[in-house]
Design a protein that fits this description.
The chain is an alpha/beta fold. It contains 8 helices and 10 strands. Bound molecules: adenosine-5'-triphosphate. Adenosine-5'-triphosphate binds next to strand 1, strand 2 and helix 1. One of its GO terms (cellular component) is membrane protein complex.
Length: 244
Amino acid sequence: MAEEKEPVIQVKNLYKVYSVGENRVFALNGVDFTIYKGEFCSIVGTSGSGKSTLLNMLAGLEKPTKGEIIIGKQHIEKMTENQLVKFRRERVGFIFQSFNLLGTMNARENVALPLTFRGMAKKERLKRADKMLNLVGLNKHRTHKPTQMSGGQQQRVGVARALVVEPEIIFADEPTGNLDSHTSADVMNLMRDIVEREKLTLVMVTHDTHLAGFADRIFHISDGKILKIEDNRKHREEVEDEQV
Ligand SMILES: Nc1ncnc2c1ncn2[C@@H]1O[C@H](COP(=O)(O)OP(=O)(O)OP(=O)(O)O)[C@@H](O)[C@H]1O
């Protein structure tokens, strides 16, 4: 059966040029690609290759110098700041390297936080937060504060917080950068399972080629250009078969 592909993110001829004194830095130097619904894509490259710049553009955190970014059917490069705030609040979730949890709040309060911006009643917010904490296997840690949890557990709270708004797209910036390799693999597998089950779209940037290998497709970026897009599904299935 032919697979039906629904584009979620379309990037066309994207440029970001910074001026530094006399010099111009082409942080993104003509980038084109499409990401489809339900995909987990990683963007991998060395330091300074343009990963964060690209993620910031996709998430509407920075304006491109030139080019188009179409999410769903909306051109985000044409949105006003207010429209971008609404877009980020309602349609995307973020997972950060540094977890960004609030130290004074426990796990469920941290997860429920993005819902307060939607004006949802407290009881409903906490109910949804508990459901997400269940999903990431932390139902016993609901009342733990960040300092009372391991790095991996804190990042699972971060994953639950990104998912609680039921976003179409999740952006992750080096999400396991502060974790050891075993815990990183656990968090990666968890993210991949949830993306698959909930039919979400996940875009992750990393400098780590091993972690990039958890994705369905790997976008290699260098000097602001996508050098290669690698379909990783077949390779991954083979690795998984070997592990059974
Ligand atoms: N605000 C800025 N002003 C000037 N140059 C910038 C700015 N932000 C990024 N750059 C430059 O753009 C290029 C791409 O930077 P970017 O932060 O996207 O790289 P990266 O791949 O995310 O690197 P890292 O893995 O180190 O975070 C680099 O050459 C960087 O110096």
